[in-house]
Amino acid sequence: MNRNRIKIIMGFLFLLVLASCKKDPGEGGNSSITGKVKKEVRVVLTNPATFQYSTPAADEDVFIVYGDHISPDDRVWTNYKGEYEFLNLRKGKYTVYVYSKDTTGIQGVDPDRMVIKKEIEITDNKQELDIPVLTIYDVP
How many CB atoms lie within 10 A of CB 120? Predict the structure, then answer.
């Protein structure tokens, strides 16, 4: 085989390997997503006019889904200030969510598992994204 043909084949193989190295969303990067969870207490969950007070939501589960996965890929807990962070993430789309008591009053819905979520995208390396406050609801 002549050298030019070998160079072409090697170049093609290099491009093939390079193209297959696309990283999906998830761990292994150098970006982060941070945020806060706030708890709003109402006398009647379905009535915002019965608001009593709000407080940082300490020790709440916060979940993250990488890309178009179906189930959560990671979970962290909020600190005493209601803050959380997901570290070492790669570029891609993410969904961050928490569970709240249900404020809709719809029958047949789990009253303790209403989803509060935010979809976000990391577009650059070393990006630090801060999600707007996720508000959950509770009764006194």
Answer: 17
d(CA 33, CA 121): 10
Averaged over 11-31, what is the pLDDT? 71
Give the mean pLDDT of the chain. 90
Query: Taking the domains of the chain in order of start, what are their residue ranges?
Result: 23-138
| Reported pTM | 0.82
Structure-block tokens of residue 121: 């995208």
Beta bridge partners of 129: 33
Say which amino acid occupies 55: T
Q: Which amino acid is at 76?
A: V
Question: Does CATH place domain 23-138 in 2.30.110.10?
Answer: no
